[in-house]
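In this section we walk through a basic example: taking a raw amino acid sequence and producing a predicted 3D structure, encoded as discrete structure tokens. The instruction is simple. Fold the sequence below.
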Amino acid sequence: MKLSTKGRYAVMAMTDLAGHSAVGGRRAVALAEIAERQQISLSYLEQLFARLKRRGLVESVRGPGGGYRLAKSAGETSVADVVHAVDEPLRATRCAMHEKGCMKGGARCATHDLWAQMGEQIETFLAGVSLEDVAKGRVGAKVSASAEAA
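The resulting token sequence is shown next.
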């Protein structure tokens, strides 16, 4: 599975926002600051944040000191929420969601179930990782805990 630039950059930007908001995430952060720190085009971030705002993940603040802030706490916002908000599918199969299969005539390829299961595992993992986990470097601990539980 390959996550597009759209999904990766949205997660990078939202993690930056989570890490640079004041206590409680109530300080707005300008997109120009995020663009500079993360080396992402400002115009691209504006497009991403329009989608994130439509999906209710961020709030915009106008005026001096304006910018964006998280709509919910970083601990309540999963990486999967962010990826889905920018219309990024989390699947590993080559067929589209509305198709029956990936081969001509709608048949499934021999490895379809393998890739479908892997996609479900990725979805479950990303749904269990919050922006706070990423911002505080706790992702490795979650991976280790998941491996030990299995």
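Looking at the output, two observations stand out. Residues 5-142 form a domain with the Arc Repressor Mutant, subunit A fold (CATH 1.10.10.10). The CA atoms of residues 106 and 120 lie 21 Å apart. In the next section we compare this with other chains.
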